[in-house]
From TrEMBL:
<dbReference type="Pfam" id="PF07187">
    <property type="entry name" value="DUF1405"/>
</dbReference>
<dbReference type="InterPro" id="IPR009845">
    <property type="entry name" value="DUF1405"/>
</dbReference>
<keyword id="KW-0812">Transmembrane</keyword>
<protein>
    <submittedName>
        <fullName>DUF1405 domain-containing protein</fullName>
    </submittedName>
</protein>
<feature type="transmembrane region" description="Helical">
    <location>
        <begin position="128"/>
        <end position="148"/>
    </location>
</feature>
<feature type="transmembrane region" description="Helical">
    <location>
        <begin position="192"/>
        <end position="215"/>
    </location>
</feature>
<feature type="transmembrane region" description="Helical">
    <location>
        <begin position="155"/>
        <end position="172"/>
    </location>
</feature>
<feature type="transmembrane region" description="Helical">
    <location>
        <begin position="101"/>
        <end position="122"/>
    </location>
</feature>
<feature type="transmembrane region" description="Helical">
    <location>
        <begin position="21"/>
        <end position="41"/>
    </location>
</feature>
<keyword id="KW-1133">Transmembrane helix</keyword>
<keyword id="KW-0472">Membrane</keyword>
<feature type="transmembrane region" description="Helical">
    <location>
        <begin position="61"/>
        <end position="80"/>
    </location>
</feature>
């Protein structure tokens, strides 16, 4: 009975329920607003010292959660009135596909990245305050929700390619132009390792998106084959 109860919380009826989706929508929306406020000083600094063209590359985590919020909003639009569970369409347009791929890849990437930076800084002597614990929990949640909602994504390989190009270009701007998120002072002498870690997370996120698409493609192909028999 315990196993059944635990499995329910990662099941489609639970994750796709209207209550769960609304809860995640509100939480991610508030987290997005908080994230942009968190980056406000760096946004002003970037505008004054680099130019407005660099602003989109600064607030990495809140932009990721913004796209995940949009993805959840789309699922709310797809909630079946009778069952109360989200049923996304079999195929989606390129715009929705890009939103979904962006939500997955960047939410996973920056969820892991932020936690790693917080605790790498702490390991090297940076002080830990209550906000660090809050950010750790919230960013782990970002990475977890991106993976938990794998069954609801409907993006295409083309969408993954577009988001992959943006994600890697964002890394190039962050560590090429120097607009990466502000780090604890204890980590400033480790930028080379951080750059490699960040790019590595990008490729892992892209690989996860491709694997999820392949699993769905093969599963969908088997269903169509079964129906045709």
């Amino acid at each position: 009975m315990t196993n059944w109860r635990l499995s329910y919380y990662v099941s489609t009826p639970f994750l796709g329920s209207r209550l769960m989706l609304w809860s995640l929508f509100v939480i991610n929306l508030l987290g997005t607003a908080y994230g942009y406020e968190w980056y406000w000083k760096q946004l002003l600094f970037t505008s004054e010292n680099f130019g407005n063209a660099y602003l989109p590359f600064v607030p990495d985590s809140p932009t990721a959660s913004l796209f995940f919020t949009c993805f959840i909003g789309l699922l709310l639009w797809n909630v079946d009135k009778q069952t109360g569970i989200a049923v996304p369409p079999e195929r989606v347009g390129w715009l929705r596909g890009c939103i979904e791929a962006f939500a997955l890849i960047t939410s996973f990437k920056y969820g892991v990245w932020a936690v790693a930076m917080i605790w790498a800084g702490a390991y090297q002597g940076d002080g830990i305050v209550w906000q660090d614990w809050m950010l750790t929990i919230s960013h782990l949640g970002m990475a977890a929700e991106a993976l938990l909602y794998a069954r609801f994504y409907r993006y295409t390989p083309g969408a993954v390619l577009i988001v992959a190009a943006w994600t890697l270009w964002n890394d190039a701007m962050d560590y090429g132009a120097g607009v990466f998120p502000w780090l604890p002072e204890t980590l400033l002498d480790d930028l080379g390792a951080i750059r490699l870690f960040t790019v590595g997370l990008s490729f892992i996120g892209i690989a996860i998106a491709i694997i999820i698409w392949l699993i769905r493609y093969r599963k969908h192909g088997r269903i169509l084959q079964h129906k045709s028999v």
